[in-house]
Recover the amino acids of this structure.
C-alpha cells in the first residue's frame, strides 16, 4: 500500500511507515454520509481525507 510508484511524469519513493503516526495510515472506516461513492471528503479540522465507498464505508 505504501510501496514505490515508478513511472512518468513523477516517481514516488516508498514510505517508511514506522515514521508515521498509525492514526494517519490508510484504513477502512465506518462513514455514513449523504455523498455518493467516489466522493473525496476533506476534514480540515481533523486533518483527514475520506474516499467514500458504498455501504457506509470510506477509506480514510
Amino acid at each position: 500500500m505504501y510501496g514505490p510508484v515508478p513511472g512518468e511524469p513523477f516517481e514516488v519513493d516508498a514510505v517508511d511507515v514506522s515514521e508515521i503516526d498509525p492514526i494517519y495510515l490508510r484504513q477502512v472506516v465506518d462513514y455514513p454520509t449523504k455523498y455518493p461513492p467516489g466522493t473525496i471528503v476533506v476534514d480540515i479540522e481533523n486533518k483527514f481525507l475520506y474516499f467514500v465507498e458504498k455501504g457506509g464505508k470510506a477509506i480514510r
About this structure: The mean pLDDT is 93. The radius of gyration is 14 Å. The first strand starts at residue 28 and ends at 30.
